[in-house]
Amino acid sequence: MRITFGPWGETLDEVAAAARAAEDAGAEALWVPELHRSATISAAAVAAATTRAQVGTAIALAFTRSPMVTALEALDLDELSGGRFVLGLGTGVQRLNEDWHGVDWSKPVTHLRETVRDIRAFWASCTTGEPIDLPGERAPMRIRGYQRPYQPTRTDIPVYLAAMGPALTRLAGEIGDGWISHELVSPAFLRERILPELGASGRRVDVVTSACCSVDRDPAVARRRSAGMVGFYATVRTYADFFAFHDLAEEQGAVIEAFRSSGAVAGGLADAVPDRMVSALTLSGTRDDVAAGLAAYEGLADTVKLTPPTHGLTPEETRLAQKELIAVIEELCR
């Protein structure tokens, strides 16, 4: 498996420094999310600070930018990184799209399929001046009188799709170059729920499983650091099937109730998350515990994306967790 990393920083300079340290430790790709920062701006900072590792968005929101803007930003990031960029896209959830961004959520599978089609078509023909006329139910694209005067570094930038439900996962297997999970996917869920859907089309894609990873000599300390991340995902009701698969439906319900009654932000629910949830869904414990957890993904995932715990922690706590995780990556990549 490829070992890759999601850097954290209180500033963009710190994100870039963490990415550089992870690259030096042996991480083969560096992934940046879209929640508290813009994924594309963070990717630019990481690309400028590194020289060898791939730089990917994990993920950029697919519907909050137009396909043309996404395509242009990807071309610029690929140029900035010297051909190292990976465009990771995800739909987000309905509330995020409609309430936070004012974007219509209807038919996300159709919308994502057409968005990826549009982006690839734009990459292929944006420098020729040929018109683009792509009908669509959710993302039609009609461009005339446009010719990009700059030659792209590549016109076949890899497109990875984030998915958890069966329909989007099948779409990732059908049209994506890779699939990306959120931070809590267990080996059992990957084997039983994800891989059958990814393989339905008969294509081979890069399987990127993400893992919230907390390392400490005291496993109890490591687990408590990761509890806020689990609480964040547990507030999402559409993940009910995911938690039920792990026999954690009751625990998810308790987290949702705590979220509703306390008014706390989703990442501040660590106290409502029992160790059982953390142990089942994250790589948290001693270095030996983490190594054993990683070994369970062998033969299932092509790539593991390790990220430090962030939700509900102080910057100092996350900084310490990230430093320890990069040291583990260096051991793993020797």
From TrEMBL:
This is LLM class flavin-dependent oxidoreductase. Residues 10-300 form the Luciferase-like domain. Pfam families: Bac_luciferase. Transmembrane segments: none annotated. CDD domains: Tetrahydromethanopterin_reductase. Signal peptide: none annotated. PANTHER family: CONSERVED HYPOTHETICAL ALANINE AND PROLINE-RICH PROTEIN (PTHR43244:SF2), PTHR43244.
